[in-house]
Design a protein that fits this description.
The chain is mostly helical and 143 residues long. The protein contains 4 helices and no strands. Helix content is 60%, strand content 0%.
Amino acid sequence: MSGAGGGTGTPGPLLAQPLRPPTPGRAAAYVGLFLLGAVVAAAGALVQAAWFPGGLLLALAGAVGTFLGGAYTTRSRGGAMAPAAGWIVTVILLTASRPEGDFLFGAGGGSYLFLFGGMALAVICATLGAGWQPRGGSARLGK
């Protein structure tokens, strides 16, 4: 009998499995990656304006390194999403002006490149990052 695990002892397709909460270690890793993304965003916001255009490239490279590093560390796309979420939340909060009139981002093109470029890179890294790969031996039949 063939089917989704119909008596063969195999668990069936991945999408048919029930969702389980993450282990405490993985949840702590996601929280740490979220905070790391926030720190990288704050540092990038300061560096990108100070040394334009090299600072902008350095800030975006640091963000990409954080996103992809999280993906490869946890071996999941969630590992890229956690620092990306921390990065985006921090950047959005830093763009808001305060009642005193202070703000961190100027109205220049470099600031917009940092904001939109970083968001686009976060989506790219979360989409193309280290996705789930099946464990075990060769995928070829007969091996």
